Amino acid sequence: MFGFSWKVKERPEKISGVYTIYPSGAAVQVYCDQTTDGGGWTVFLRRQKQEPQLNFRQTFSKYEEGFGSRSGEYWLGLKNLHILTSQKQYELRVLVAKGAESASSHYQKFHTAGDSFTYHSGHQFSAIDRDRDSASGGSCSEWSGGGGWWYNFCYMTNPTGLFGGDKPAHEDSDLYLEWRNWQGYYAYLSKLTFMIRPKTL
Questions:
Q1: Which of 55, 65, 88, 111 is the most exposed place for a label (fewest CB within 10 A)?
Q2: Separation in Å, CA 94 to CA 67, 104, 114, 131, 187
Q3: In angstroms, rounded to a whole number, what is the distance separating the alpha carbons of residues 101 and 98?
Q4: d(CA 153, CA 198)
Q5: Might you report a single GO cellular component term (predicted)?
């Protein structure tokens, strides 16, 4: 069932929450956001401060399958993301926050993007145990806290990094959750959400 979160939006109750979809016949739980920009969004990555903090230092196979709690921090999984986006064209919305300040970016096509995301466009997904980035002499995943991402050399956004909180700038800077084109380098985020919905609604 493609665009499931959009179908939930069409219901009278339109409530954000965890729903079960069947994109390839198997049950997959997703979080549907029904409040942002008219609703209908399927969240595929959510980062927020919680106890215990979810460890994003995972193997490539974990990034393929997905991990975390759909009601908290989670990664939907590369396989599920591919299944969802291979049948239709999707748009992407990224929500970022640092303390009380927040911003968002909107991309008309999930496979092309602007600002911090452009730097990563067209690159293979890397994880702590599978180095496929453009950096020579090391692993961007390792240097960036062990999280998986579409690293180039290495990143302009680090959505699977550690929470930096009030860490001073430059102190192990590559380890932390960042969206560099918003408030510059070393402005560590407190919250980040990546979500998609069908482009043709």
A1: 111
A2: 19, 5, 11, 25, 16
A3: 5
A4: 30
A5: extracellular space
Long-range CB contact pairs, 81-86, < 8 A, 24+: 81/44, 83/23, 83/24, 84/2, 84/23, 84/42, 84/44, 84/196, 85/110, 85/111, 85/196
For the chain, what are the domain ranges? 4-198
CATH number at 4-198: 3.90.215.10
Per residue in 141-193, pLDDT (tens digit) is 666 666 666 666 555 677 777 777 665 555 556 677 677 666 666 677 789 99
3-state helix, strand, coil in the chain (%, to 5): 20, 30, 50
